[in-house]
Design goal:
The protein is mainly alpha-helical and 554 residues long. The chain has 25 helices and no strands.
Amino acid sequence: MRLLTYFILCIALSSYAQDVSEKQLMSLSFDSLLSLYDEEVKDTVLAEKIARIYIRKATELKDSTKMARGYTRLSFIAYRRDAIKYLDTAIVLSRNSTHKNFPTVGYLFKSLHYYENEEYERSLQSALLGYQSARAKGQIGHQITALHQINDINEIWGDYEKALTAHLLTYKLLMQNKNSEQYEQNYMASLEGLGRSYVRLKKPDSALYYFRLGIEEALKQKDTAAYYAFVSRSGTAHYVNKHYNAALDSLEKADQFREVFNNNYLPHYYFYKGSIYNETGRVEEGMEYFRKIDSLYEERNILYPELPQVYDKLINYYKEQQADEEQLRYLRKLVLVLRLIEDKKRNINEKTVNDYKIPRLVEEKELLIADLEEKNKNSTTILWLAFGLLALSLGVIAYYFRRQRLYKKRFENLMASAYNDEEPVTEDLQDTGISPEIIENVLERLKSFEQNRDYLSQEISMNEMAKSFETNSTYLSKIINIKKGKNFSQYINDLRIDFAVEELKNNSTFRKYTIKAIANECGFKSAESFSKSFYKKYGIYPSYYLKQLQQTDT
């Protein structure tokens, strides 16, 4: 529930006439157009008209930075897809700009859009680019904003201890730069991030300390939305403290403002309310809230970190009720969700290790330097800095060699084991509602499909495959899920990856192909999707596998 954002666009609507002519707008200066836009931002039709006039004037002057500013203003009043398109245009136009805010703000707004839509990998990528841009511009306020975004994503899907360390580091950096831009917004974001991290680490008293500071700051700024965000967060800390009445009171008090909260709010609210009811003996009511979270997942197809706990509680509940069918249904969902969450965590962690760890350590180094200068402005500063850089270098080298050893071990395991998956026959197809004749026909056709290597075609789709099997996509999907233990896409990709492994192992000519050519031969439309699928299954990239095989040839 990211309730505190980087920019807050709540501007009062003025009485400026909506039928203002283009000629009148063209006669205004750039600054006047921006001021008018800010006054009329709630009137999206007029605001868009003003922004496009601003862009037209900037285009006539060939001023790419002003054009970027105009497209950024367009993004404020556009739906998400168009907003991201406008921000991409702003980034391209201002990539070489000397302006202190561009292209940084484009990356930061993109990250925020992706975060609000729960596209965390994309949000992380944009935040990292925003951080790098802000650092190059020397904009400490934007750097802190980017770090907040990075920290929040790492907090949800990464290591909670490391996320807390990152939040504390960012908070310290903010306290040393109280005159930076967006200080008030960044201060409240820091308080919320620290409190959330302490809740996840089961340290409710520390969480409540920061949430109370947030409530005080929200009252000071007269920010109603932020105030109730911190009230709701306080409810989660009370829950961890087992103060269930206080937790329920805080959650329900804040819920009246749910319209101003983002997409993450409802699963957050349902989870804690359901957990409180479950812990206080109101089990039926608790399960109802957990079922609501399941419904949200089915509707949005977006993962939440609490889903495994939700399904675990539902499984235990139906086990006690001796409702075997419901218990089995949620057990299947739990297995699938755990697999998907593990993939998401691995992707986020890889990105934060490879890209985010560097800015975090850079900021840590800068804080170390500042502390040393305050204590002793002499030659020992240089000495400590040298030690710090040496330790960092050694850490990077150690990480590299550990990763290479891990890849080597995975390669050896792959070479030593059979590549074909055994069909998991842990599930019975009799209770699926599909006739035995259809099941037998589909299984025979799947066997033929695999033997003939039809999966190497790039034109495979669930619907087309179902038609060729003389069945429907629902039956085909269900049979694959149960008999193969994976969804349709995973099934096809795994077959292709296993073919690639065996062909590369046994065919020296195949090893001379490029990764892109190998991907195409195996049925993938791009080298990137091939590499991701290969790594997902075997924990190494095809380029590494190919390199190791080529070394065995020499």
